[in-house]
Design goal:
Blueprint: H1 3-23, H2 25-33, H3 37-63, H4 67-90, H5 97-121, H6 129-157, H7 162-187, H8 212-242, H9 249-273, H10 276-291, H11 302-333, H12 340-368, E1 371-372, E2 377-378, H13 382-406
Antiparallel strand pairs: 1-2
């Protein structure tokens, strides 16, 4: 297997293992272990903000470790702790599920952050057009991982009760993790000790992190991710209690991510023909246009919502894949490759912060407004679900579009 494919394949395992954590575990603990939804919101907000704060530190210290040590220690040790944490997150200690949820959710996201930051930072080892090709392949594999990670639990839940379904799924995750890590390690990591950076700046001044172009990029990206975080958290509530189409939830998620994965080649070609920032802008505009259709939906609108999932998934292919590729290009252009983990640490920090705010706010909002899943008491008005699922995300996306257009990086990269 080529170095590019060996590297990119590990993105599948990371996405497959991490996506269900954000989507399914809160609902799993609410339904099975009767945790209060408002409490879940507080826990998620606190833990994910803490996790986000740690990301720049992880990036900073990872950048100070040699490639040989990254191979020998970070990946090999953290993959084991990550796997163990995932298992106990989905199979908690019954004596106190709340404590188990807090401890193992933190450990899972912490070790995932270490693996993910160092994984993304290694993309700078590919140069020129190969860098864009690697980014596209990596994001395609990540989308496939998210697809399987989103759909498999739904399929298992149709055949088993929640506890058994997630027990089986946890073993799926462990098998996928170790299989793809073996491929990644044998065909890519083992060769990194021979790679040398040429004409590389030896020391990075702190001012590089606060360069106005990076600040503009991070700001636009944060708002864009925040606009996507709310629908990601709310989709199950929207489908179940607004559209009343609970049985079709796996279909909607599958169509969204499959469309996103298939669109990556198109966004890659647009990025090469024009610029990455221009292509990013087009993807966000298309996202606003397609997702606005949610406001015309009513209960039971299966096919209209399926079309929205397909087209908005196509738009998200660019919105998700272009920013990390853009950041990689910027790092290479500025000759700060040896410190790429720092920049991707900040990048992950913003992603996690957006998800923390989105998920925490969503569950607190739902709990405050009268939805209690543990008691099957759904009193939340449909209009309030629509505001959180669609209106606020659309406003945030429009803000990110405007900011990107006036930023100094627009059409430059």
């Amino acid at each position: 297997m080529s170095k590019k494919n060996s590297y990119s394949s590990f993105g599948f395992a990371l996405a497959f293992s991490s996506f269900p954590i954000y989507i399914y575990t809160p609902i799993y603990y609410i339904e099975i272990y009767k945790l209060d939804i408002f409490l879940i919101g507080i826990i998620l907000l606190f833990l994910r903000i803490l996790d986000a704060i740690l990301d720049p530190l992880i990036g900073y210290y990872s950048s100070r470790i040699s490639v040989k040590k990254i191979k020998k220690y970070i990946f090999n040790i953290c993959i084991l702790f990550y796997a163990v944490s995932i298992y106990f997150l989905f199979n908690p200690l019954h004596a106190n599920p709340t404590i188990s949820f807090i401890i193992f959710l933190f450990l899972t996201t912490f070790f995932f952050s270490i693996l993910n930051i160092n994984f993304y930072s290694l993309s700078v080892f590919f140069k020129g057009e190969m860098s864009s090709s690697v980014s596209a392949t990596r994001e395609f594999n990540s989308f496939l991982g998210m697809i399987f990670g989103a759909v498999i639990p739904g399929i298992l839940l149709n055949f088993y009760n929640s506890e058994k379904a997630y027990f089986i799924f946890s073993f799926f995750i462990l098998c996928i993790l170790f299989l793809f890590f073996f491929i990644f390690s044998r065909n890519f990591l083992i060769n990194l000790t021979t790679v040398k950076f040429e004409n590389e700046i030896k020391r990075m001044q702190i001012s590089s992190l606060f360069n106005k172009e990076y600040i503009w990029f991070y700001t636009v990206h944060f708002i864009s991710v925040l606009s996507a975080a709310l629908p990601a958290v709310m989709i199950i509530f929207f489908v179940n209690y607004y559209l009343k189409l609970e049985a079709y939830t796996p279909l909607f998620i599958l169509s969204y991510f499959l469309s996103a994965a298939l669109s990556l080649g198109i966004w890659k070609k647009l990025s090469l023909k024009y610029t990455k920032t221009y292509s990013w802008l087009i993807s966000m505009i298309f996202s606003v246009i397609t997702f606005s259709g949610v406001y015309f939906l009513d209960q039971g609108d299966l096919f209209p919502y399926l079309l929205i999932c397909i087209f908005s998934g196509f738009a998200s292919g660019g919105d998700i894949s272009i920013p990390p590729s853009l950041l990689t290009s910027k790092i290479i252009f500025d000759k700060v490759k040896t410190h790429s983990a720092v920049f991707f640490g900040i990048y992950n920090f913003l992603n996690k912060s957006a998800l923390a705010i989105g998920s925490g706010f969503a569950f607190i909002y739902l709990g405050y407004n009268g939805i209690n899943m543990a008691e099957n008491a759904y009193n939340l008005e449909a209009s309030k679900i629509l505001i959180l699922y669609s209106l606020i995300p659309l406003i945030l996306k429009i803000i990110s579009i405007i900011l990107l257009q006036v930023s100094p990086i627009y059409k430059k990269i």
